[in-house]
Write a structure and sequence with these properties.
The structure is a homodimer. Chain A is an all-alpha fold and about 700 residues long. In chain A, about 85% of the residues lie in helices and about 0% in strands. In chain A, helix 12 (about 400-415) runs antiparallel to helix 14. The longest helix of chain A has about 70 residues, at about 565-635. At the A-B interface, helix 11, helix 12, helix 14, helix 15 and helix 16 of A face helix 11, helix 12, helix 14, helix 15 and helix 16 of B.
Chain lengths: ~700, ~700
């Protein structure tokens, strides 16, 4: 029996339910009461600011994507003059679809998030329970949209073209968007944050979120474009890449067995979406009123539901193998474990955050040193987790044949990403309640409301660290399977030319080694360029803020009716972010191309490995150290180690300022950088085979 | 004709000249006038303090080495119950020789350095030219001792046993010592530095090098044990490892060609020593009085002399191949280029240091962020350099056969390390003139003398950054060839068991991949443990300093005749350093053993690769960022960006405090960690082949 129609049907059904549920949640959020004029006004400004950013971003992206699509059409998967016009055209169209679907998901997420923030603020004046629900459900719309569109897109491309290789083009489209959304959004958010702090808190001594500060709206916009749209695009990208690489292998394996492996990929993805929907539907704060617990409980229950559903499917359906189920289960469980260990290093109820807070008593150098040290150590569990899950998945599936073993790793990645709908919901909750806190302050909703908003925000911060660990782990497993996809692409080209196939990439081969060393340097340089970009951009914005305080009479004194020019700040952050992003992104792609044309496909194999390994290490380090510093500062602000205004607090603020671009700009952008490079390599593999100096 | 006797003769001659020259230089330094009583007194205290540290260090090391020697005798290269008692005994004895010879070289270096410091201080009161010569010649004794003993040891082991594999034991001995000397010395020096600053400058407001501070002698001792003994042991280790791995390959290649390849290794090493001797003999400050220029000129001329001498040898001697000469030339030239690019990132006449100084105006977070960013970027040229030299060396020698190609990489490492005598001389010059500056201040030699000492010290700092870049590059190439040596060891065991040989380590093999990920995490955890160790140890010392100020009447006020208890501080730094080092070193060895027994020899191949790649990246990052911060602070202190006491200066001090353990403890210790792990892997390879879970 051919399983594919059934599974496609199931997937469509899941996507349809997800979309319907998203619409329901959106309407539910919209129905929440809004009364406070000031809040509505500011929320509207944030909404418009976010739209300004996204419009400009998408405009530049369209230009970039247009050029990339033309190049793809001309050259990929093989030069058009070799005759494969249809394949190249499909690839180019798939690429465009990848960018558009991810963009639409991001747009929807921002739309809902920026309308949920004000409602969450007002709900907080009623109860924590209600406010939690508004924040969480607002975020869930993004989660459902991302997973729905990614599954729909992958399915569409495969149904129309029937060729899994074309999915690499779709995936590359998603990656291109993610690069802009995550890295661009990351530069935007930290530009605004740093500039607002430097001029407001430091120079003028006015509080955070003070409406006199021209950067304050940009700062709130940043939370949305960085964490909602950026993180969504990042996980859209990882999810698509995981499915694409699994499907490339599944299709090769399926040659003789009626599509059971392909069906399995879709079935698991669809069941993951259903598990997320169930998890989202039942999420709520319990009697203990602990929002962190509620978010974590939803994640664990979604995990359990996924494991049960897939086990049932595997038991019922002929051709679904238990070993592969095991591989995906291992991937998911390791993902959850990585999240928990990340939590250990960044949660202020645990010892590490407290140690860094304590070290801050000796001055900021010790905040930085201890944070860097624990940040380095925090990489270990996640690296071991990824290593073990890859090894176990491989060993589990190896008895079925060596191709199945690699497929096992790909399915571990699919398993890890299966609950991505839930993960994004948790993550997008963060900026919504963060915004809500600012709005509650600006709208004068009173102490108790702010306290509730603070509690919700703190849960968002903790969960965000977990999400980041999870998404880095998922990216790690995904790129391992992309390495496999790259090898198949190279061998397909070699087979076409009648040349000897590669069995792998031997590190004793100096071409591979050459690639490894250069690939390893790329994430370091990439993240440095982003961080320096934040700095440069923040300097521009600082000049503008100072100009406004100098030129707009009454602004500094807070005279009634005098407003700063918020828009100019948003424009500066937007344009600067995109300007600073281009060289960093261009450098990574250029380095890939240069290494490929010097060392050929083997050097690129090494290049990808080096890139993955050092990328994972730096991404984990920067995300975790940043979260650690952030929460150490919060821990001190809660009254420990001398509390607010103490020497320790000043040191902790320095740590937090260092950590901000680490965790919100550079660290998580590395994920995307790795995926982009892997896909560029796969797509250009035939060119590297044909033309290279030493290869 | 058998070349070996001739080449051994040449090598012995070179070693003899080096030793004679070292004795001459030592006597020359001793002959310099010393008059100032106070200076002699303090110099004596530093000398005794250094001896205290080294005595304790060597005592613990003896214990460690004794246990290791017994384990080696029982198990390595293969378990003694398999019958190879003589081989195991040779290995154990070679191991002991490796530790002893390196220890002796370190002891000699410290002896001369701590007697040269006072003489350099007094010479500075006469002229810069004289003081430079005292500092440089004092340092040269260490350089000549290190190269002489390493060459002698390698030659001795090979002449006596005739088996290059035994050299791995000798090399492991050198590595064990380097781990203690470099990491232990690194913890010692920063413990004293941090504790002295925290209590003296910050709490009491007394100047640096103030004799009332109980930690001040420990601080000066630290410069010697960290930079003279530590760096010497590190380069002894790299030099031996490079020769050992080249000789393992050369011996395999020589089976049929009368030892030409083995002869070539020794010939090049001996000519490198001769080139260094010539360079050292002619080093002096020119009319322009620029000590940095003088140090650099010596390096470049030594490089040129080596290239000419080896070219002549290659032209004259039958069996010496031009291709291999090319490989070693490429290695050396790339080493120099890496040094120059490191200089670009850390020299205060270049833009980067100035940019970080400028960023400091906005506060310490920006000092840290910009330093981290440029530190990341600074890895790129060195990584590319190592990658290119490995690739070019391989391609140059590949036409002679694939075994020769790997030998080419090993010879590139030998070439890069050929001028190591000169490099160590430059490096050991640094702490001598640094000490001299402190002594000039304590001895009251006047403004002009201090200015001269400052100029000499600044040259030492700049050159130190170059040396570090160079030594990391050399370690990089060396461990690549150690990877080759490891593969040969594994295959020898497999051949003995009649099992299929490994052709290499394929990164698509999940065992290899598993190893890569875990190996990559090790340097991060290792360096974090060292940094946290410095912090813990400094806290202990801070408590002791506070106790002394509280308990010793008149100390704080500087009453005549009241002296602090310097020795207790030295004891605390010493014991703490060794205590904090053991877990870090143990962790790396344990991780190697665990990965080996889980994943077998293939996982270890990956483990070594991951370890090398992330180790190089982090070592370069930490060394360069540290040097950058240090020089940014000095740049501001020279009167820029507001000068001493400004906000920028405070921020730069934070940067420098972060950078100190980066560049003097963690960064350069990673070199040694990489070599230790590579050698443990090679030595234990037969055990991993015999017993492993998945391998």
């Amino acid at each position: 029996m051919n399983l594919l129609p059934t599974v496609y049907g199931l997937s469509f059904l899941a996507v349809a339910i997800a979309f319907a549920f998203a619409v329901y949640l959106h309407l539910w959020v919209k129905r929440q009461r809004t009364e406070n004029k000031r809040i509505m006004e500011v929320s509207q400004l944030i909404h418009e600011g976010a739209n300004t950013f996204m419009r400009k971003e998408y405009r530049i992206l369209a230009l970039f994507a247009g050029v990339a699509a033309v190049i793809i059409f001309l050259l990929l998967p093989s030069p058009i003059w070799n005759g494969n016009i249809v394949e190249n055209l499909s690839m180019a169209l798939a690429y465009i679809c990848g960018t558009v679907l991810s963009a639409v998901a991001g747009k929807i997420g921002i739309l809902v998030a920026t309308s949920a923030n004000s409602r969450a603020a007002e709900a907080a004046s009623r109860s924590l329970k209600e406010a939690f629900l508004v924040g969480f459900r607002g975020g869930s719309v993004m989660g459902l949209a991302v997973v729905g569109f990614s599954l729909l897109g992958v399915m569409g491309v495969l149904m129309i073209t029937g060729d899994a290789t074309i999915l690499l083009g779709f995936s590359f489209g998603a990656s291109s968007l993610a690069l802009f959304a995550k890295a661009g959004g990351g530069i935007f958010t930290k530009t605004a944050d740093v500039a607002a702090d430097l001029t407001g808190k430091v120079e003028l001594g006015i509080p955070e979120d003070d409406p006199r500060n021209p950067a304050v709206i940009a700062d709130n916009v940043g939370d949305n474009v960085g964490d909602v749209a950026g993180m969504g695009a990042d996980l859209f990208d990882s999810n698509v890449a995981a499915m694409a690489s699994a499907l490339v292998m599944a299709q090769a394996l399926d040659a003789g067995v009626a599509g059971a492996n392909t069906a399995m990929v879709f079935c698991y993805a669809a069941l993951g979406l259903i598990a997320s929907i169930i998890g989202i539907a039942f999420a709520k704060v319990g009697k203990d009123g602990n929002p962190t617990g509620a978010l974590n409980f939803s994640t664990y229950s979604t995990t359990a539901i996924f494991l049960v559903l897939t086990a049932i499917a595997t038991a019922l359906i002929d051709g679904f193998e238990w070993r592969i189920w095991g591989a995906s289960a291992v991937g998911l469980i390791v993902g959850v474990v990585i999240g928990i260990t990340t939590d250990y290093f960044t949660d202020d109820t645990r010892p590490i955050v407290r140690r860094v807070a304590n070290a801050s008593r000796s001055g900021s150098a010790f905040t930085v040193l201890s944070g860097v040290s624990y940040g380095f150590i925090s990489c270990m569990p996640a690296m071991v987790g990824i290593a073990v899950s890859a090894l176990v998945a491989y060993q589990l599936c190896a008895p079925m044949g060596s191709d199945y073993a690699l497929f096992g790793i790909a399915m571990a990645a699919v398993g890890m990403l299966s609950i991505v709908g839930m993960i994004i919901s948790n993550d997008a909750y963060g900026p919504i309640v963060d915004n809500a806190r600012g709005l509650a302050e600006m709208g004068g909703l009173g102490e108790e409301t702010i306290r509730i908003a603070d509690e919700l925000d703190s849960a968002g911060n903790t969960v965000k660290a977990v999400t980041k660990g999870f998404s880095i782990g998922a990216a790690g497993l995904t790129v391992i399977s992309l390495l496999g996809a790259y090898l198949s692409e190279v061998n397909e080209t070699l087979a076409g030319l009648g040349r000897e196939l590669l069995t792998g990439f031997d590190i004793m081969n100096p071409l591979v080694f050459f690639g490894v060393l250069i690939g390893a340097a790329i994430p370091a340089v990439f993240s440095a360029m982003l961080m320096l970009g934040v700095d440069k951009n923040a300097q521009r914005m600082v000049r503008e803020i100072r100009r406004q305080f100098r030129r707009i009479p009454g602004l500094r004194e807070g005279r009634e009716g005098v407003k700063p020019d918020y828009d100019t700040c948003i424009d500066i952050a937007t344009e600067g972010a995109l300007k600073e992003l281009i060289p960093a992104g261009g450098m990574t792609i250029l380095a890939t191309v240069i290494v490929g044309f010097i060392g050929g496909p083997e050097a690129i194999g090494g290049f990808l490995l080096g890139n993955i390994v050092s990328g994972l290490l730096l991404a984990l380090f920067m995300s975790n150290a940043g979260g650690l510093w952030d929460n150490s500062k919060k821990y001190i602000e809660a009254g420990h180690c001398g509390g607010k205004g103490s020497k320790a607090h000043k040191a902790a603020v320095t740590g937090d300022t260092v950590g901000d671009p680490f965790k919100d700009t550079a660290g998580p952008s590395i994920n995307t950088q790795i995926t982009v490079v892997s896909l560029v390599a796969s797509l250009m593999s035939s060119l590297f085979v044909a033309f290279s100096l030493f290869g």
